Amino acid sequence: MLLRQVRDDAADAETVQSVTAAAFHETELSAAWPHERLVRSHSRTRHMARTDPEGCWLAIDPDSGKALGAVLSTRREGTWGLSLFAVVPQAQGKGVGKALLDRARLHGRACLRGIICGSQDARAARRYRLAGFTLHPAMRLTGVVEDRSGLPEPDGVPVHPGTVHQRDLMDSVDRRLRGGAHGPDHEEMVRHFGLLVVDTLVGSGYCYLLGGKIELLAATSRRVATRLLTEALLRMPPGTEVTVPHLTAEQEWAVDVGLAAGLSVSNSGYLCLRGMRPPSPYIPSGAFL
Length: 289
Fold this sequence. Notes:
Structural class: alpha+beta
Order of helices and strands: EHHHEEEHEHEEHHEEEHEHEE
Number of domains: 2
Strand order of the largest sheet: 1-2-3-4-5-12-6-11
Mean pLDDT: 93
Number of helices: 9
CATH class of the largest domain: Alpha Beta
Shape: globular
Low-confidence stretches: none
Radius of gyration: 19 Å
Oligomer: single chain
Largest sheet: 8 strands, mixed
GO molecular function, one term: acyltransferase activity, transferring groups other than amino-acyl groups
Protein name: N-acetyltransferase domain-containing protein
Domain N-acetyltransferase: 1-158
Strand content: 25-35%
Distance between the termini: 29 Å
Pfam family, one: Acetyltransf_1
InterPro entries: Acyl_CoA_acyltransferase, GNAT_dom
């Protein structure tokens, strides 16, 4: 097995996407992925290959030349994050995943904090725990907002569409909550996701959303976070399937909003953290953490 860095080109972006689809048993489904999803997947890979070449690796079979696994990780100031970790089924349990994760972790060796949005896969959870991460059980809210009257009433905190020009505000919120700004990730996210921002004397925060999914939410207070999540749900078209992922017990404010909106709560993997408690009020992004 050979390890090489992921390159910032279309070929490697396609390779990472193919490995991911195979690892999560979506190979046949991926052929029917909407064009926009493929664009986001490829763009994320190339973005991270540019910003974090030492954190993005492919495992290659030296005989066939085929990719066996892929890992994408970032280092943002003092926080390391694992954005993607995938090994094709026929290579699982053969040391490929360990080699990839070990190489990616070297990219964050100087970071005091680490964050991974882990799935329910028991092998991955074991690997993360052995790597020194604390496993915080996570929840997911899903469903359709049937009765909007159950949502909290607007409390005077204004929410407005954001742009990349609010990056300094968002970086400031990031540092307060997770110890490191997302920095260039905001420029990538704003290209693909809708953005809502709060910037007032009572607090600040932001929320990225795509269709019915809350991609990332961060705020300086529960009041602001509740207002952002409520506004995001109110702006979704009627009948939209909603997903609010990666919620730990520290995010009860989000669970309360979701239950008031008629959403259902279920178990959903782990939020894996090193050197930090679950940031709150915060809903992490699986891809951008």
